[in-house]
Amino acid sequence: MNCNKVLALSLLCALPLLANAQTVRIVTDVSYPPFSKVNPDGSIVGFDPDIARAICTEAKLQCEVSTMDFDGIIPAVQAKKYDLAIASMNITPERAKAVDFSDMYFNIPGRLIAKAGTKIDDKWFKGKTIGVLRTSVQREEATAKWVPKGVKLKLYGKVTDSFLDLSNQRLDAVYLDANVGDEDFLKKPMGKGYSFVGPVYNDPKYYMGSGIAVQKGNKELLGKVNAALKKIIDNGTYKQVQNKYFSYDIYPFK
């Protein structure tokens, strides 16, 4: 038997399988360190990309991670430009009409950031301008609870832009995920003189945890993601990733 012919035939037979191997296209938003950012060398790093890669490894999926601004992510998944989004996306009933969500993979409350010493009560809100991400649960909650009290909301595509306006006194406060505010503003030189003010906001109507968004109706991929997520939580991989970026649990471990 000619071994070279056998090898060549084997490779030819394998080509259709390789050609049909599907790459799972994942999108994230890199304006949320430590959840995600782009290094100077162009590499995408952070909690979300690491969780994405851990899930892909566990599920034996070939994955490709790309980036875009947060407010374009759901439309891009709906348009089938991406198969799923791992972008610190809060689960909401409205978003669940457009995409399917995995099980929760972390849950962080909201906080207001303002000048240190600011006292928050019902009277404080009247006439104030508060920055929020355009597509966020913070916007939904603030619209329902604070706009009737006289608040003007200023909407942003990137939370970093709201920090610039806050530090230049074009905003009275920013309302956002607590960890993002802590890591990306309060711990930076720009955040000097500012602090979390008022209570911790964790109304379950708005804070249902963050999930991985999957194209609507893709039950096969959703099942693989949920199974892999459970495995990396159970085998300790999730905690290893978490502890790389946070000094406290962001998942409600039992």
UniProtKB/TrEMBL annotation:
Alphabetized UniProt keyword annotations: Signal
Solute-binding protein family 3/N-terminal domain: residues covered: 23-249
SMART domains: PBPb (SM00062)
Keyword Plastid: no
Classification via SUPFAM superfamilies: Periplasmic binding protein-like II
Pfam families: SBP_bac_3
Origin superkingdom: Bacteria
Signal sequence annotation: 1-21
Protein name, as recorded: Arginine/ornithine-binding protein AotJ
Organism: Vogesella alkaliphila
